[in-house]
Amino acid sequence: MSNSLLSVKQIAFILQVHPLSVRRYIRDGKLKAIKVGGNVRIEEESLNNFHKNIDTNSKNNMILKNVKKSPAKQFDISDPFLRLEGRGASLE
After folding, report:
1. Residue 1 has what pLDDT?
2. In order along the chain (92 residues), what is the average pLDDT of each group of 10 residues?
3. Considering Cα of 59, then 62, then 67, then 73, what sign does the dihedral take?
């Protein structure tokens, strides 16, 4: 069975990212690529493996997003940044 080779532009279209992002994935070793006649090509199997890794990472990120975060600090007049004086620094 022959594995089809895809160009950087084709991969970018499939992943819905910029071609430079695909080249960055290749440079970082996240996506395996080969050079054919001076052109960068990605095997379909490599794309499938890359896509599996993305799915796994996105599930982990979703778990992290569900973690409760502490509320943002409310500023009041006692805050030193709000007592600054000078051009454009007053609240009035």
Report:
1. 43
2. 82 92 93 92 91 67 58 73 63 56
3. positive
**What does the domain layout of the chain look like in residue ranges?**
5-65
Q: Is 13 helix (H, G, I), strand (E, B) or coil?
A: helix
The H or E element that residue 44 is part of is: helix 44-65
- Residue 54: CB atoms within 10 A of its CB come to 13
The residue count for the chain: 92
**Contact, 31 vs 22, CB < 8 A?**
yes
Picking from 87, 22, 7, the residue whose alpha carbon sits closest to that of residue 54 is 22
Tokens of 61: 């990120």
Phi, psi dihedral angles at 90 (to 5 degrees)? -85, 160
**In terms of CATH architecture, what is 5-65?**
Orthogonal Bundle (1.10)
Q: Rounded to two decimals, what is the model's pTM? A: 0.57
